[in-house]
Amino acid sequence: MYGTIYEFETLPTFGEQGKRKATGPVRVARRGRAVPLVGIIRNPRSHRNKGHAPEMADCSNILTETPRTRAELFGVLDGFARRGIDYLVVDGGDGTVRDVLTCGAEIFGDEWPAFIVLPKGKTNALAIDIGLPTHWSLAEALAAAHKGKTVTRRPLRVSSQDGSSGHIMGFILGTGAFALATEAGQEAHRRGAFNSFAVGLSVLWAIFQTLFGRVGNPWRSCTPMRLIDRHTGRDLPYAGPGRADERFMAVATTFEKFPLGARPFGRDVAPGMKLGVIDWPVRWIVALLPAILFGLTGKFLERRGTHRLSASAVDLELGGSFILDGEAFPGGSYVLEEGPQLTFVVP
Fold it and tell me: Which of 104, 8, 45, 92 is nearest to 321 (CA)?
């Protein structure tokens, strides 16, 4: 990725990580000190960071950095790794978490320090998943870390099928109508709606447009898309009335809890990568979308092209852009799989 790390942008290329010479994970210094060494990536443009000073910046064991570009972020994370930080703090929103994971992937490999997330963004879906309060201070987080309160999650990892462009990591990927809904969410943010409220508004707007849109309305269109189980080589199930190489929407995530208390994958959500797919914008299916998001299931939904799936790795062939944690990336041929296991400090 390139450009500023704190602004939503549509990227014409997949990423610049593949342009760097891969050196492998850094051999880090010792962790587990009596006084932990804490490295903070702070996003000063995050919604609740604007106009506020960094927390605990005068402490000698707190290393606070505010990189302005992804190249700077890579250098900061490399320095953190060489110093062997005990905790990596992301002081920002979901997009900042995505950038840290992506830029740090070739530095930390599978050996990341424990994460502390201070949810300062506009949506903070990761914070909802791992059970963080909306207002959580660094002092409170470090106290929880001292008590050993943690959960684990694996991010999604997206890489080009030919291995030419590195990879990106995040927690929610969507394409098709999901990309339009993300644009609606950005508009909701601009009008002052944040967190779960903004998600709810985006869903309602998507339903309205899809139900009442006329021919030519982008909400009534499907996107060229093939979803292939990487292990079997077979396309994922399709039951829509249209073309098997086009779908209305696909969403993938490793989350176990969702905004607004939604249960799009049922009550007992298993760990690992999950996919929700709607093959075709059947109006009565779209009208039932709120109920589906809150756990409605049934064979009648599957017969009309609504799928809940689990897979460890999927080949994506996308004719349109996809969204990863709020940022747009161009269509193409990708591999979607689970990334390394990460540890998050929780209350």
Answer: 8
Domain span including residue 56: 17-153
pLDDT, tens digit, for every residue of 118-138?
998 877 899 999 999 988 999
User: What's the CA angle centered on 337, arms 335 and 338, to 5 degrees?
Assistant: 155
CB 171 within 8 A of CB 344: no
343, burial (CB in 10 Å: exposed 0-12, middle 13-18, buried 19+): middle
- Helix segments in the chain, DSSP class H: 70-83, 94-108, 125-130, 138-146, 177-190, 195-212, 283-287, 289-293, 299-303
Domain count, the chain: 2
Q: Is residue 95 part of a domain?
A: yes
Q: And the tokens for 271?
A: 């760990």
* Residue 340, helix vs strand vs coil: coil
Residue 38: CATH number of its domain? 3.40.50.10330
End-to-end alpha carbon distance in the chain: 32
Together in a domain, 256 and 138: no
The residue whose two tokens read 């929103």 is: 93
**Is residue 80 located within the same domain as residue 209?**
no
The residue whose two tokens read 């709607």 is 278
DSSP 257-321: S-GGG--TT-SSPPSS-EEEEE-S--HHHHHTHHHHHTT---HHHHHTTEEEEE-SEEEEEESS-
Same domain, yes or no, for 194 and 315?
A: yes
Reduced to 3 states (helix: H, G, I; strand: E, B; else coil), residue 31 is: coil
Contact predicate 281/222, CB 8 Å: yes
pLDDT tens across 260-300, in order? Answer: 888 989 888 888 999 999 999 888 888 888 888 888 999 99
Contact 106, 21 (CB under 8 A): no
C-alpha distance from residue 13 to each of 21, 71, 110, 178, 243 (Å)? 18, 16, 26, 20, 28
- Which residue in 3, 109, 18 sits closest to 327, CA to CA? 3
3-class SS string, 168-185: EEECEEEEEHHHHHHHHH
Look at 23 and 107; give whichever has higher pLDDT: 107
